[in-house]
Design a protein that fits this description.
Elements (H helix, E strand, L loop, with lengths): L1 H23 L3 H4 L10 H24 L6 H12 L3 H21 L2 H6 L1 E2 L8 E2 H20 L13 H4 L3 H8 L10 E8 L3 E7 L3 E4 L7 E6 H8 L13 E3 L4 H7 L4
Parallel strand pairs: 3-6
Antiparallel strand pairs: 1-2, 3-4, 4-5, 6-7
Helix pairs in contact: 1-5, 1-7, 3-4, 3-5, 3-7
Length: 263
């Protein structure tokens, strides 16, 4: 787990450096542009990332010191403070809060990275550092895309993050998938992704879940792994779909977009 934690922390660092370089150049008008998250402008995405950095750091600090994990009252106070900021405050606050979180991850020695357990507040029990950091990377990398795509329609999720986040997708589906979008239709697809290569099943029924690939699937979806991450999180609209994305069988790519509306 320590090796995975090292990789995730390195991806958090490179992601921060890349996004910070962009954010430092944004003016007031840029900060109020629509982002790839349909209901948020860029400054609101930065507010979400900045407040999330504060809450993640508070959880990590509690784990390291043996103190109580932050509760919902703490979280609400953080959100309220960030909600009161103007767009420039969101940008400046993000740069500071996310830097401090990444630096704290980086400061942990190998033994601590292996043994510390972090209470994130919404899971049944504390998790190892690799899991906690990877959940932050999932949030960060996708919202980084939300900001970058506002300026570059061909933006992709950071390549160093993609292989680390693939196994997070199955966990997310229970939160974000909407099986009712298929109006009762059911299907089992084989999903083949590349860069990196993986093959697995996607079961669409009363629940949406990842499975082993079926021997006789109803259809098949093929795409880059990066595109699969964005599809599963509601970020693969027609304007941002790369070449090589195909879906065959009883459901279409548009059907899958409705099943995965995003967050």
């Amino acid at each position: 787990m320590a090796v995975i934690a090292d990789q995730v922390i390195a991806a958090l660092r490179s992601g921060h450096d890349e996004l910070a370089a962009l954010v430092r150049d944004l003016g007031p008008t840029d900060l109020t542009r629509p982002s790839g998250a349909s209901e948020w402008q860029i400054s609101q995405v930065l507010s979400h990332l900045g407040s999330g950095a504060e809450i993640n750091q508070a959880s990590l600090t509690a784990a390291l010191t043996g103190g109580p994990a932050p509760d919902q009252d703490f979280n609400r106070s953080v959100w309220a403070r960030w909600d009161a900021m103007d767009p420039t405050g969101h940008a400046e606050g993000f740069l500071d809060a996310n830097r401090r979180l990444v630096e704290q991850y980086e400061s942990l020695d190998a033994a601590t990275r292996e043994t510390v357990r972090v209470d994130l507040g919404f899971l049944p029990e504390p998790v190892d550092l690799a899991t906690a950091a990877r959940m932050r990377l999932s949030e960060f990398a996708l919202h980084e895309w939300d900001i970058e795509v506002s300026f570059n329609p061909y933006a992709t999720v950071a390549p160093e993050a993609v292989p680390l986040l693939l196994e997070q997708v199955g966990f997310l589906l229970g939160w974000v998938a909407r099986p009712d979008a298929l109006d009762g239709r059911r299907a089992e697809l084989t999903v083949r992704v590349h860069d990196p290569e993986q093959t697995f099943g996607l079961r669409l029924g009363e629940r949406v879940e990842l499975t082993e690939a079926a021997d006789q699937p109803d259809g098949e979806a093929t795409m880059p792994a990066e595109a699969w991450l964005r599809l599963a999180t509601g970020r693969l609209g027609p304007a941002h779909t790369p070449d090589g994305v195909t879906v065959t069988g009883p459901v279409s790519l548009d059907d899958l977009r409705r099943v995965f509306p995003g967050y």
